[in-house]
Amino acid sequence: MVNAGASSRSVLMIEAVAAARLGQKGLARRLFNEIIEKEPHFEQALLWLAALADTPDESIRALEQVLVINPANQQAISALAVQKMHQTARPTEVLLPPPPASRALPAAPFQSVARIRAISSTGGSPVHVSGSAISAATEGAGAQAARPQFERAIRKIFQCPLCNHSHPESSDRCSHCGGMLKLCDLWQIAENRGADEELLARAIERWSGRLSIEPYEANLNIARALLSLNRSGEALPYLERACSLRDAPDLETFTSSLRARKLIIAVDDSQTIRKLVAVNLERRGFRVVAVEDGMQALTKLEEYKPDLLLLDVSLPKVDGYEVCRIIRKHKLLKSTPVVMLSGKDGFFDRVKGKLAGANDYLTKPFDLPALLRVLEKHLGRLPV
Prior knowledge:
Blueprint: H1 4-21, H2 25-38, H3 43-52, H4 56-69, H5 74-87, E1 94-95, H6 111-116, E2 128-129, H7 131-137, H8 143-156, E3 158-159, E4 166-167, H9 186-190, H10 197-208, H11 215-228, H12 232-245, H13 249-259, E5 263-267, H14 271-283, E6 287-291, H15 294-304, E7 308-312, H16 320-329, E8 338-342, H17 347-356, E9 360-363, H18 368-379
Parallel strand pairs: 5-6, 5-7, 7-8, 8-9
Antiparallel strand pairs: 1-2, 3-4
């Protein structure tokens, strides 16, 4: 048996959306407010109210109410960021309601914006146009006159999919979080400096929670964040999943070029050394996965099957010698080159490493040329 309250809400929603599409904003707002009075936590109705608001202040209040209910609502986050950015500069602007041409009930009030500006591999969520454009959009034939004005507004506003920071126009790199947004040049991405690790870590966490809801966008944006942090080894699986979900030739070309790079797993309990190794090797054309202890190393080895392992001797949980011995007994990993890293340069330590099955030995601290010579010895000619 259908719940009477739910049925009543559905009827009100249909009537409210129909009124909004016909340009009857006053009636639509009254109906949506009636829904919210009965169900204060109904996000969809609040989003519609934000889209139909007469002033930015009204829109902001509705969007903030949505975020109190659901802090992860991306539509509200995107719209609120743009509204606040323009509140002072253009106080008479409001969000564009859905166009009246379509009779279908949309999934969300900002769907029309997302459809007009098909989100490409660079991403973005512009949702702001002037009040005059809204008036024209709700007058049937006048919609065509509003289109150039609406498209100009779209071109001027770009929102970073990683930190939601709004920009006046799209760019290769977000000036706020330092994330690389255009995935086309691996060398340029590897040279990225000044990325905000905390903001990008939050982006990874946020998009990880949306993998089942927005699989393409979530995989793509997690990969963007990881690449920006010189973690291309971890980024590749997300890029491959994104390519499997959508026909994107440019993204597939980029993914193929990344896949062709040699993969190195670097294991060290020092975060500084892990970061230095990852940054320098990514800039020399390698993929790197960095881990901090022996147990993680064994897990990542099974998952990634690297071309070479840089393995610190002194590790928590399972030391480097034991990890090396386990690898040498593994059917699929036993031929993987292992370079031991140690702060000791003693004869006994080198012999112990050899007995465990290591192919080479580097004493810390080591410089980049020394590391590259060892890699070339075991992997062949290095990338140019």
